[in-house]
Amino acid sequence: MAKFEYLNYKDVNERLANLVNNTNSKIKVVKKEPLGYTDFKLPIEHYRMGQGLKHIVVTGSYHSAEIITTIFIVHLMEELALNGGFNPKEYTIDFIPIVNPEGYLITTQMQDLYLAKANTEDEKIKLAKDYWAAYKQDAVNTLNANKMLKKEDLTVINILRGKKEYEALFDDVNLDDYLKDYPELKESVVEIIKKNGYSAGVLAAWTANGHGIDLSQNAPFNSLIEKYKKNGPCYSGTVYSNIRKDVPGPINTPCRDLNNFTFEAENKHMLNFLWNLEHTKDVSIEAFLNYHSVMGKIYQKPIEEDWVVNLYDIDYSKKLIENYNGARVIRSENAYDIIEDVDPFNYINEYFRLRYGINIQVELSRMGSNPIGPLADPDTFMNITVKPNIEAFKKFVNDLEFIKEYSKFINNLVFLFNNKRKNNNESILDSKEVYRLIDNICCKTPTLYTKLKEELKNKNYNAHVITYLFHLIETSLENKEIKEESESIKKRVIYASNSVDKFTERYTAFINDIVDRLNKDRVAKKQDLLNSDEIELLIDNICKDYPEIYTKLKFELNKEEPNEEIINELEIHLSRLINNQIKMLNLLPNKIRN
Ligand SMILES: [Zn+2]
Questions:
Q1: How far, in Å, from the CA of 387 to the mean position of ligand 1?
Q2: Is the pTM of this model over 0.85?
Q3: The dihedral sign for the CA sequence 424, 430, 436, 441
């Protein structure tokens, strides 16, 4: 059983101070000068690990209610310090666990007062669950009310603009104890809630800084600024539908004065830090991992802001494919959904993404209801959110050179193909289409993928492998396989060989075994049964993310006499991955999602 792990502002600083002072660290954690101070004089703390010239920037709690991003980063730093996991001679990792310390204090001090009602750990978990449930109910109520909005019914309006259930949980909190040591910060937020008629409960899920500005939205090219100017009062979505985003408040407000944009201090310090780092001799910012916490998603697509692209002479297609490949590596461990669009709520990161290395924005946890909802199930938080994302981080850093080489390789292939296609008056392909095609080919021919990966890692191209792959891609294109993604491996094998061979037969039996194994377990837990088609699709997706598993499986099943022990091991491994994916509500048809 994992512990209920809620860390307020003081807890975070203490945990990290212990880590800095730990003499048993494999990789030392160094506390650097803060990036700077916020308007209310709070330091934006900066920690560093490693001495390499290649830098990776890691940020948490840009949105302060997303406190689990900071808790995750604390765990990540502890794991890397105590057990290693990247090459500190090659890389330096810059951690900024709390970009928005004012907001972190605003939201956690409210939660401190709420959780103080509990005496035991179980009681705290119960309070977190109540919070989670109220918040979820608010989301459902708002969604339903929004559907009926056309009717202009007064009760509908009341649901949308009125006080939420989660806010009511904080009704009896005594504000005398709130932000006692930060009187100016307190005055600022109390003034904001008074001015707008909000309840004190909105402080519990505060996402902005002390001036009520959402740091992620605080970017001059945020197109919403013009929209808010034109449309008058604008309200946030779902749970925050009673909160205005065109005036300073708890969430989504881009700047203090819509007619006169200014950067908040936190963003000025972030921009300065990145600029200075990049302009340090021999140093490069290779990647930027920006952790948020909205329902297990990965944002990776760079925005097409021409002025940034032109100003800094950015190779947009390189960015596009590098970010996508980076996201695929992260996804192979956490199994979150890769979003194929830009994040409409994170403009400052879109700028970072264009400017500073491979930029992946990971939205941790599928539980929702920030800040304490995701902590209401400590086991899930530890095993499904923290651990897989630590693995994802390590894998990302260790695969970074490969991600870059692989992206270059694909872009070269696209270039060669398109030249040829242009000459034949055929339509032009984009890099991601070719990537998917290579993915499909690698599933069919996993040894090729393993070989390719090795060669790209060693930057030692073997002309035969490339030519062979080129040939396979061309054949696939001729067979119009490019849109064939959803077809399962089994079906594709049959399609390719036109007969049910020994491998297909064994593979089918293998899948049926796994389905039986999983269903036996589900019967015991009184859950819906899974069918083999769904599982097959799931295994397919897993094989794409872990080609090594598929290679091993295929090798074994193709043998005259497969080794039962290895097959059994693979069954257990895959069952575990499938169960994780189901827990993460991932990759499955709607039926199982509930
Ligand atoms: Zn966020």
A1: 20
A2: no
A3: positive
